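Ticket #4471: structure export looks truncated?
Reporter: QA, pipeline team
Priority: medium

Steps to reproduce: submit the single chain below to the structure queue and open the exported record.
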Amino acid sequence: MQRFARLVALFVVLLIARGVARAEEGFKPIFDGKTLQGWEGDPKLWRVEEGAITGQTTADNPAKGNTFLIWRGGKPADFELKIEFRMPDAGFANSGVQYRSREEPKKVGRWVVGGYQADMDGENQYTGILYDERGRGILASRGQKTIVGADHRPKLAQQFGDSNELAKAIKNHQWNEYHIIARGNHLVQKINGRLMIDVTDNDPKKQKLEGILALQIHAGPPMKVQFRNIRLKELPRQTPPEKGDADKKKIAFIAGKPSHGYAEHEYGPGCVLLAKCLKEGLPNVETVVCKNGWPKDAKALDGASAIVVFTDGATSNPILQHLDEVRKLMKQGVGLACIHWSLDIPKGKPGDLLKGWIGGYFEQSWSVNPFWTAEFKQMPDHPITRGVKPFSIEDEWYYHMRFLDGMQGVTPILTAVPPDKTREGPDGPYSGNPTVRSQKGSPEHLAWARQRPDGGRGFGFTGGHWHWNWANDGFRTIVLNGIAWTAKLDVPPGGVPSKTPTSEELEANQDKPQPPGFDREGIRKKIEQWK
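Actual output as written to the record:
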């Protein structure tokens, strides 16, 4: 029995070790936990204590200026760095992690560094911000996405989080983990898994694409800072963006195979139309449409800021079939938008993952898919509703979706009250269930937005059965705004501008042949009534 117990324990340990190895794939330790081998700094101020690099000043042994412990293992360009840090004592403490930095010993002295700094301080006033040491100063405060221009000044592109709320994720005087990601001129800093800043440095004279790593002790009153578990993952170097392309966002559409009848579930034509509208309506947007399902060449999704899925659902859902690939993209902060049937995915692990990524999903035998006219009488104050006035339209509007508990991080975008008759279907995967039948008169959310804790975004839209509905300006603009927001683009005050497609344009390139007796005039009148 004891032997069996030992075997089980060993098996569990191996599983845990395997999981950790996978999670840390590609990362290599650059501190051995025992010595300062490979690092260089003032030996009076730096030592190893209890397995941690420790920098400390005292009244008798102060720092005469900002001084640094420099890693001599190279000058990383594109990389990910994970490092645990703490400032164990109350009172003054000011430090940071330098990356892509420089030193000029003949000019400013030994062990003095300038460049990008992932900042930290004892009271967490500045912890998480990006500071340019000996340079341009603060490039992004906590919760900010900024773009730095040729004038050397950061411009706020988005306030994605509240600084005080983000500070709550940082444990005072305890161990925290910085995760720094540098790719090309794009810099991201996270602490304990929470996105702190997102910076695109387009400053041609001041941006740095490679440089040294270093740890700081700040001049001032006595202080102590510690670092441990330092891991570096160097990435293939990206080619610097061409002038004018630095802010370009790539949006990849995954259009499903032909499905249903004429002008129904027109995945390919629908994606082509939306991609065209985004490219024409917003500057610096690149789109790619992958037809007939998940792209055979996964490189089609490389560099995407957002992925839009408009496909069949249930067991045919490409998200289900490529769950691990989607998970990797989500961990990179890629946005995800799901339209209509692509919201349908089996409950359990797939449903829970999709729910976490975009906020909700269609759960069979819980959600329903009737055809009805939804009246959207009020719009919430959100970038996705910009330029959209109240409207009503008939579609196969799914509702009673399975959302995150408490709608955590989820903002309803389109809400309407379904007719009671739509709740009277018999029990079935799509038709009805006792809970739906018991909630007559209740409002239902038909589109929503999700701000993920890791900084990524999600968008769900349950309409999209009828291809003609893209000619409804409110319907189309909500989806365009939702995709743009998911890609972390700035939604214009009037929404993403787009021209109302004509019936002839909507007829073009459909997946199914036009049936005999097609009522073109009726479609034209419907589009005209929407204007």
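Status: closed, not a bug. The export was complete when the record was re-opened. Leaving a note from the reviewer for reference: The chain has eleven helices and 28 strands.
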